[in-house]
Design a protein that fits this description.
single chain, alpha+beta, disordered N terminus
């Protein structure tokens, strides 16, 4: 991943996606000057991130021998603070074509790309950051 959310993101099949998102979001917010505390109890002001969709799809046109791989990622962020609430969905998707059937590596590359894009978009959201500044996370 490129941008403020710390280096390259590499999601592997045995990795906890929840932990990866938590780590990347925490690092991105820390770079913006926040002190991040992870609280797993309800009723606290702060940020809740919900992973709505992460998927890849593949289609192959055998007549022209072209394969298409697409990836999509959607997350929802909700901030609750003394000033009020802010909520937004962040979405990224991409598609690429190949002369032959795409391999697993192509799918992983696209998936990592869209995950990086939604995280970067979330960390760059000025309204979300302003909501979090009020909560002093």
């Amino acid at each position: 991943m490129f941008g403020p959310v710390s280096g390259k993101t590499e999601l592997e099949k045995d990795q906890s996606i929840t932990k990866m998102f938590q780590d990347k979001i925490s690092k991105g917010l820390e770079k913006k000057g926040f002190k991040v505390l992870v609280i797993n109890e309800k009723g606290h002001d702060g940020l809740i991130v919900e992973i709505r969709r992460i998927n890849t799809s593949h289609r192959y046109a055998p007549v022209v021998r072209i394969g298409f791989v697409s990836a999509q990622s959607v997350i929802k962020a909700r901030c609750s603070s003394a000033r009020g609430k802010y909520e937004r969905n962040y979405r990224a998707e991409t598609e690429t074509s190949h002369l032959e059937d795409a391999g697993r590596k192509d799918k992983e590359t696209l998936l990592n790309y869209v995950i990086a894009k939604v995280l970067e978009e979330m960390i760059q959201d000025k309204k979300l950051i302003e909501c979090l500044r009020v909560t002093n996370i």
